[in-house]
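Technical note accompanying the year-one report. For the benefit of new consortium partners, we illustrate the data format agreed upon in the data management plan: each record pairs a sequence with a structure-token string. No post-processing was applied to the example shown here.
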Amino acid sequence: GAERSTLMSYFSKNQIQALKPKITFSTLRDLQCPVLQSNDLQGKPEESCSTEELFEWLGAVLNQVSLDNKSSSFLSTYCCPEPNTVVEKAFLCTITGFIIPEKIIQLLEQLCCYFGEPKLAHWLTLTVHGFADSPVSWRESEHGFHKGGENLYNFVIFRNLDYWLHMAVGAHDDCPP
């Protein structure tokens, strides 16, 4: 009754609207990428990288950290794990906003089109971040912000449609089994 009309007048006065997600595209050229084997989570020396090495590399790429290990860099001396390969062009798409699970499934399905002919992609990733200060995390637990507010999962999908799933949450949060 009264609460609802008060809320409605507040929203209309302040012109709060549902915002469309913001989409940005970029092309990364000559990107050093880890060599991955879908059936080898731990990686093998001189053959493939592990899931942990990939996850660390992905964080560097998404944050636009240089991968060339220059001693003059004040930000990072990180370099791409071995073995790696140089990819002439990699596409990075970032969608910012409130995105429902059904849309994430649609995105995954559309991304898998990159495995069609001609087979350009060996693997691709989709990372979904929750807001660092989100009130909830996995299951029905409150989200403990504490230090970093980690709250994300990442799919790595391979050409044969095998996939890896990374999950990252804060130390005080529940994580699905």
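Partners are asked to follow this layout when depositing records. The helical segments are 2-14, 51-62, 101-111.
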